[in-house]
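Bumping with the actual sequence this time:
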Amino acid sequence: MTDKRARINKLTRDDLRSIEMGKTKTFALPDARACDNGKSLTYQTQNLMGCKFSVKTDYVASTLTITRNAI
């Protein structure tokens, strides 16, 4: 597993597509609301992408750590 940090204003589907299968990526977001929105987007998108995502949220640091896994 690799851990890469990316500073972004909001999480997009392209950000999720950039995560390779079996890899982990951490996104630094501006606030807790952006974390909640990103988490929701991640779980909605996994069905479209044919994979499962594991999401860990750190509300204090405003980060999402997302792992892409095969179904």
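The tokens above came from a reply further down the thread. The mean pLDDT is 91.
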